[in-house]
Design a protein that fits this description.
This protein has 106 residues and is an alpha+beta fold. It has one domain (13-105). The protein is 13% helix and 33% strand. The protein contains one helix and five strands; from the N terminus they run E-E-E-E-E-H. It is globular, with a radius of gyration of 17 Å. The N and C termini lie far apart (48 Å).
């Protein structure tokens, strides 16, 4: 793992690895050991799509370590490190394209 320096994590949005490898956004609610990137998180789930256990849409998890290399269950990593990217499309053409997509859904 590359050397990381952790500071001011409180309130940051990070990505949490759930069972099965699903990744969900999480809010750092407590810093436990900044040398290790050890934190408590409030995780935002996809509600019942993640299972009945998560139907409220969030859960609290404690003593979560940073892991940017292996992305093991019950670890966190930075946003933007998922190997995917999103593109922001703006302007009238973007709105028109979105409307057409919804029309196609019927």
């Amino acid at each position: 793992m590359a050397e990381q320096r952790f500071e001011n994590l409180l309130g940051r949005i990070v990505l949490y690895v759930m069972a099965g490898g699903d990744i969900r956004p999480a809010l750092v609610v407590r810093e436990l050991d900044l040398r290790l990137g050890l934190v408590n998180l409030q995780v935002f789930t996809d509600g019942v799509n993640d299972g009945e256990k998560y139907e409220s849409g969030m859960f609290h998890t404690t003593s979560i370590f940073f892991d940017d290399d292996e992305r093991k269950f019950n670890t966190w990593h930075w946003q933007g490190d998922t190997g995917t990217s999103a593109t922001l499309v703006t302007g009238p053409a973007a709105v028109a394209d979105d409307v057409d997509e919804f029309d196609d859904l019927g």
